[in-house]
Each structure stands twice: as C-alpha cells, then as structure tokens.
Write a structure and sequence with these properties.
disordered N terminus, 32% helix, 6-stranded antiparallel beta sheet, disordered C terminus, 4-stranded antiparallel beta sheet, alpha+beta
C-alpha cells in the first residue's frame, strides 16, 4: 500500500489533522436499532396486509447501519511509511436513510462539490417549496411523480426570472440545484424541495459568450403569483396522471388499488410519519407525545418573502452573494444535512426514546417522546427507495447543458472534491 507523504495534512488553521475512529456502538441510536430492529420487523410483517412484507431495502438499511463503523465487519489498514504507525478505518454503510455518520460525510462532500465544481460565482437564492400532507404522502409512495413535479417547479421559477430580466426563453436561461429533502426535525416524513437557483439568468452576449444578468428580489405579491402558478400546474399534472380526481369542485387522491406489495407495506408507516402519528402498536393512530420546554411563540408572525396558499408554502428570503462562498457552503450543508444527529437521540429512565427537536416549535415543544418500537417506525419511513436521485440539476447546471462549460463550471470526479472543511 502506498505510504502517506512525509508532511502531515493540516487544516486551514494550521492544526494537524487527527483521525479518530467513531464508535457507533456507544451511541443511543445504535443500541436502539440493535435491540429493537428484529422485534420491529416481526411486528411490521404481522400488521401488514397479506403478501405485503416490509420491503427488503428497508431491512437492508437497518442491517447495514448495524455494521457501519464496526471493525468486525471489515476495515482498511493504513500504515505510515515514515514512522510505521498503523490506523484501522472501519468500512461505512454509505446509506441515505438515517445513519448520522454517513449522512454527515455525504453532507460535507456534497457541499464542497457544489461550491467548488457546480455553482458559478453569481448570486444564489434559495427557494423552498413545502407541500400539503396528502401530496407529501403521494410523492413518498409514488416517487416516479417527483421528476415531472420538479420540472413544473423549475419551469415556473425560470420563467419568472426571465421576465424579471426582460429576456425570452430562447435567448437566456437560469440554473438550479434542487435537493429533495425527505425529513423534518421530528424525524417525520416531510418531502419538500430546497432549490438553489441562480439569482438571475445567463444571456448570450454579442460574441456568443454567456453574460449573467442579475435580477431584483421578488416581492411578496410576485411570490404569491409564482406559488399560485406552481399549484395550478402541479394539480393539473397530477390530474392528468390519474393520481388526483376532481369532482364537483373537490380534489382528492385516487384509489391506490394498483400499488405494489412494497408500497402497500410502507404506506401505513409513511402515512403515520407524515401526520406525526403512530402506525401500529398499543398507541396506534395516536399522536406522538411531546414535551413543551420553552414558552410558545406568537402565532401571528409573518415571515419575510414567504407565500402560503392552501397549505402550500414558498419561501425565498435566503440569498448568498456572488463572492460569499462560505455562506453558500453553509447553505449547501444545511440542505444536505442528515436526518438525525446522535446527540439528539437519548433514552429516559423509563426506557422511552426522547428526540430533541433541532428548533423548538411555535407551541414551545422541544422534545418528542416515543417507545423504541414507535421510533423504529419513524426510521423505516425515512429510508428512500433505491436508485432514487435526491439531487437534481436544471438549466445551465444540468449535466448536458450547452452553457455548462462556459459559465466557469469545471466538473470533476467526486473523488477529487474536498471532503473535509473546518
């Protein structure tokens, strides 16, 4: 094996980089999965409809998590050619569901990759689209609908930016990186979209080179108009697809008789996780217990640049300047963060799981309390289907975009991206 170089790697502040193996077996989350996963599988299959066993990819997620970072399940041995010192690096699961370690590493890698090799040095605005609970569940059970829905969202925002810049669709284009985030702070299933959109459009100059035209910030009224268009076109799209039915002015979800066995097994878990309820067990159908640790906030507070229509929400107040790459990387880290952090999961004296919220709710709730098996239900609902891309690229940032190589973007392999930042 190739020896490590003579000079030790150093962080930007000059402190030598020190590797310390994480020990997942010492965390509360690991012990909970280790002790209760098998019981959860048995109860889930007992509750499932005939022939609708828990999908194998969900079981694989739990099994891989229990092997992640454990030396007994495989490791890489590194040896320094100068001093002969050895390091053992345990293999990781590289899963996308609820592993805090792999999620944190993926967060750092993705953020560095987007900032260094994807997003050009132009202003970037974050557009966050939240959906009503029925549509969250629909996109969770039928993830193939996510692509056409994202195309509608990107098309509406791009046309708004073109109008702001006074350009036509055939002479200019914007760009966006959209992350499909599947969770909320309460480890609930909450599918919503974080779109990092270039705050302007690229227009071809007289010499054929693209010139970036920055646009002004949207007004509250303009945001309402954009959201209304997104809602109208999304509902029409889903109606054409046959997943929504309109009758006598009412819109409701079509029957799911044609669902696969996997979808029928996961639907109760996903529906309960969307609605902050418990899928099965002694407290089936009830809401998760909450703890109010702070005073409630004012309910009449109106966020800046935030539109709300029929439980759809569009937020566009966060913006990073053209040269503020540190703020952009922090934003990228935020939208690519893992669903759980080890320090947020603890057990009380009664053996119940106490999940600390990232930010207190408006009613003052700071923690959720549930049994270990109820917590396993939440974890299973967070596992994404295999081969489901959670990061999408549009406009000039799309992989095959003609302008991609002309706007200062230099694609490189993920293996050459920075994987550690301080």
């Amino acid at each position: 094996m190739q020896a490590i170089g003579a000079q030790s790697h150093r962080a930007p502040d000059g402190v030598p980089v020190h590797y310390e193996r994480h020990r997942p077996e010492q965390t509360t989350l690991y012990r909970l999965v280790q002790q209760h996963a098998a019981t959860f599988f048995a109860e889930a299959e007992a509750e499932a409809a005939a022939g609708a066993d828990l999908p194998q990819f969900v079981k694989d997620e739990f099994d891989a998590f229990l092997e992640c970072g454990i030396l007994a399940h495989g490791f890489l041995r590194l040896r320094c050619g100068d001093c002969g010192h050895d390091k053992l690096v345990a293999f990781s699961c590289k899963r996308r569901g609820f592993c805090p370690s792999c999620g944190a590493r993926r967060m750092a890698q993705t953020a560095a990759h987007l900032v260094d090799h994807v997003i050009p040095h132009v202003p970037v605005r974050q557009w966050v689209l939240s959906l009503p609970i029925p549509l969250r569940l629909l996109l969770a059970t039928q993830p193939e609908l996510m692509t056409p829905v994202l195309q509608v969202v990107h098309r509406v925002i791009t046309r708004f930016l073109l109008k702001q810049a006074g350009a036509k669709a055939d002479e200019a284009d914007s760009g966006a990186v959209t992350l499909i985030q599947r969770f909320g702070s309460a480890a609930n299933l909450n599918i919503h979209l974080h779109c990092l959109v270039l705050d302007g459009v690229y227009r071809r100059g007289t010499d054929g080179e693209p010139v970036f035209v920055e646009v002004s910030a949207p007004t509250d009224q303009a945001l309402q108009t954009v959201l209304h268009k997104i809602i109208t076109r999304t509902m029409k799209l889903l109606t054409r697809r046959g997943v929504l039915i309109e009758e006598q002015g009412q819109t409701y979800l079509a029957d799911n008789d044609g669902d696969s066995d996997e979808a029928r097994a996961l639907r109760p878990l996903q529906a309960a996780a969307c609605r902050y309820r418990i899928a099965f067990g002694p407290r089936a159908g009830q809401k998760v217990l909450t703890v109010q640790g702070v005073m409630p906030r004012e309910t009449g507070f109106k966020q800046e640049l935030c539109a709300d229509i029929d439980r759809f929400s569009l937020h566009a107040a966060v913006r990073c300047g053209a040269e503020d790459r540190q703020a952009l990387e922090q934003l990228c880290r935020y939208i690519t963060r893992p669903a759980l952090a080890n320090e947020r999961v603890q057990c009380n004296a009664a053996g119940q799981v106490v999940l600390k919220l990232k930010t207190p709710w408006r009613d003052g709730t700071t923690h959720l309390v549930m049994s270990p098996l109820e917590f396993m239900q939440r974890l299973a609902a967070l596992v994404p289907r295999p081969r489901l891309h959670l990061i999408r690229f549009y406009g000039v940032l799309a992989p095959n975009a003609k302008l991609r190589a002309m706007v200062g973007i230099h694609p490189r392999s993920w293996f050459f991206s920075r994987t550690r930042r301080t």
